[in-house]
Amino acid sequence: MNVKRIQADGANLRIKQIRSVVGQKQNMRDTLRSLGLKKPGNVVERKADAATAGMINTVSHLVEVEEAE
Fold first, then answer.
1. Which DSSP string corresponds to 3-68?
2. How far is residue 18's CA from residue 30's CA, in Å, rounded to a whole number?
């Protein structure tokens, strides 16, 4: 599920990097690093707070987001 706008509702999210940062702007690289993603295929779980939702919305074209159980 590639969602364009994540809401800060406190749910647990599983974020997977699906595209490389090669050719992306520096703020995109920094945002992925802040999320804890280093290379395509990496997966992290984060709470959907305001900061995380903003970061995901910034790099939505590079990541895949789903709700974690």
1. -S----S--EEEEEE-S--TTS-HHHHHHHHHHT--STT-EEEEE--HHHHHHHHHTTTTEEEEE-
2. 16
Higher per-residue pLDDT: 56 or 11: 56
Kindly report the pTM of this predicted structure.
0.85
**Six-digit token string for 47:** 């709470």
Single-letter code of the amino acid located at 61: H
> Using one digit for the tens of pLDDT, what is the confidence trace for 32-52?
999 999 999 999 999 989 999
User: What CA–CA distance (Å, rounded) separates 40 from 33?
Assistant: 12
How far is CA 25 from each of CA 20, 45, 60, rounded to the nearest angstrom?
Answer: 12, 24, 14
Q: Which two tokens stand for residue 44?
A: 């992290």
As a whole number of angstroms, the distance between CA 45 and CA 49 comes to 12
